[in-house]
Design goal:
With 537 residues, the chain is α/β, with parallel strands linked by helices. The chain is built from 15 helices and 28 strands. The chain is globular.
Length: 537
């Protein structure tokens, strides 16, 4: 344990580090704060002890159904208290939750269910058709629990059955080394990979958030970002629990209802992705914009030009934070340098290196690599993929694949991505996974997917498609094909038909040439339903 952490973890949790499991932490919080409100959701108010009891019911129900320690359980639910009870309940009985993006469907959903070895799925009623579609190709799924009305086979059950068991703490021997979650990346360097999570990681990250941000039991932390993402889990749920604060949960982001919900819950903190700041900034100013309870908002990809105006208009601090699904972070604090990702926190080392691995001087752009200062701290393991793990972690350093530079004072600034991942509306998109779908279209010879600048910040998705010889295609054919087979945020905004794609002698597509040629008169914009005109420069 680092010197800076010699006392405060035990003070905040009340447990020795050898007892750091999600179940024990929650049980300890429930014992100490019985009767105090922890979770706010719409009209519900759930105390720490009620939350713990609901998680216990899930754990005991799963054990009674023969689910064993280490079993993988996929959870595909919108934001709701049941997601949280399942998360902690699965952890309490030693299972491993696999959070599923509610927009995944088709081949990608099938791949993740199979790759994770999930044997059970918990799914929302409206999402059930997405699971049904892939059941024939996911033989490992033995049981499905549906939140809502149930239709299906003998293997389909109502989720309510998992809340009928004992509310006592389950008697399962667990350690901080037992994984509790496999969270899938967005396939930024190929296929999506399952990142194994251990209790110590998420607890340490939550404790450090509480310490850095100064959260207390007087705070209410709000999130409307999806619980299947690390942003909501790491920046809101765990810090709220560890700080003895309140967790206010929104179903989804709504620009028109955001500030009303903030005021309704009395939220003092919220987390975000950069597009939320952009969208809220574009709303018509109101006289009471600054009259809200928020003192700080924390997230990533803050548009630098909007930073200070946003803070002044809404009377709060924006805190930029950099992190990845795999781990490793660069942290900021309230009042940090505008436009910066932050600085390396005391518990991490960070370097910027060139292609040969040499550390670069301030002002030079290179790849960001990070490692924990505590050599015993466990960060990254890709599920069933030791080769990918060894490629990402070398001599303890995590190679982020992101291009950054730092100034003379040690502030880091994001430049771009070494790989061609697309970042759209807070979601990372693998171009390869978009191409896999489009290339299955019977009229398509090949395609290439890449990101282009969006007026909201981050990226929009563009595809260049080469139809088979002699075949005519309509732009709408590509869009409808994609809408049926992929998450909505992956569906391209721009489509361009090409006779061929520019390639290197080794047959690699030269995406930079296509990006440089965007927009042009052959590009179709799905949102406007028209071809673009080449701008005069």
């Amino acid at each position: 344990m680092l010197p800076e952490e010699a006392n405060w973890p035990e003070v905040l949790i009340g447990l020795d580090r050898k007892d750091w499991t999600l179940g024990k932490v929650l049980a300890e919080k429930a014992r100490k704060h019985r009767g105090e409100i922890f979770l706010l959701f719409e009209d519900e108010k759930v105390t720490f002890d009620q939350f713990n009891e609901n998680a216990n019911r899930v754990a005991n129900a799963l054990l009674a159904r023969g689910i064993k320690k280490g079993s993988k359980i996929a959870v595909m639910l919108p934001n709701c208290p049941d997601f949280l009870y399942l998360w902690f309940g699965i952890a309490k009985m030693g299972g491993v939750m696999v959070p599923i993006n509610v927009d995944w469907k088709g081949e990608l959903l099938q791949y993740i269910l199979n790759n994770s070895d999930a044997e059970m799925v918990v799914v929302g009623e409206l999402l059930f058709p997405q699971i049904q579609e892939v059941l024939g190709d996911t033989p490992g799924i033995l049981n499905i629990y549906v939140r809502g009305e149930v239709t299906g086979t003998k293997t389909t059950h109502p989720l309510d059955e998992l809340f009928c068991a004992s509310s006592e703490d389950p008697k399962v021997a667990l350690t901080p080394e037992d994984p509790y979650e496999i969270m899938y990346t967005s396939g930024t360097t190929g296929r999506s990979k399952g990142v194994v999570r251990w209790p110590e990681y998420v607890i340490l990250r939550g404790l450090r958030t509480v310490q850095y941000m100064g959260y207390t039991s007087q705070d209410t932390l709000y999130t409307c970002l999806p619980l299947f993402h690390g942003n909501a889990q790491n920046l809101t749920v765990m810090p709220a629990l560890l700080a003895n604060a309140r967790l206010a949960l929104g179903v989804r982001f709504s620009a028109s209802g955001f500030w009303n919900e903030i005021r309704r819950y009395g939220a003092t903190v919220f987390n975000f992705v950069g597009t939320i700041v952009s969208i809220l900034s574009k709303q018509e100013p109101k006289p009471d914009d600054a009259d809200n309870p928020v003192r700080l908002a924390r997230g990533g990809n803050i548009p630098p030009k909007k930073w200070k105006d946003f803070e002044k208009r809404f009377n709060l601090y924006l805190v930029e934070t950099y992190g990845t699904t795999e781990g490793g972070s660069i942290w900021n604090t309230p009042g940090g340098k505008v436009g910066s990702m932050g600085r390396a926190p005391y518990f991490n080392e960070a370097r910027i290196i060139d292609e040969e691995g040499h550390e670069l001087a301030p002002g030079k752009v290179g790849e960001l690599i990070i490692r924990p200062r505590d050599p015993n701290e466990k960060w990254l393991e890709y599920y069933k993929d030791p080769e990918a793990t060894s490629q990402k972690v070398r001599e303890g350093w995590f190679y982020t694949g992101d291009l950054v530079y730092r100034d003379e004072e040690g502030w880091f600034f994001f430049v771009g991505r070494k790989k061609d991942v697309i970042r759209r509306r807070g979601e990372n998109i693998s171009p390869q996974e978009v191409e896999i779908v489009i290339n299955t279209h019977p009229k398509v010879l090949e395609s290439v997917c890449f990101g282009v600048p969006s007026e909201l910040g981050e990226d929009d998705v563009k595809v260049c498609v080469v139809p088979k010889s002699g075949i005519q295609m309509a732009f709408e054919e590509i869009i409808s094909f994609c809408q049926e087979r992929m998450a909505y945020f992956m569906v391209p905004r721009y489509v361009e038909f090409c006779e061929s794609l520019p390639k290197t002698p080794t047959e690699r597509v030269e995406k930079f040439k296509l990006q440089a040629a965007h927009p042009n008169e052959n590009t179709w914009d799905r949102e406007k339903g028209i071809k673009l005109q080449t701008p005069h420069i």
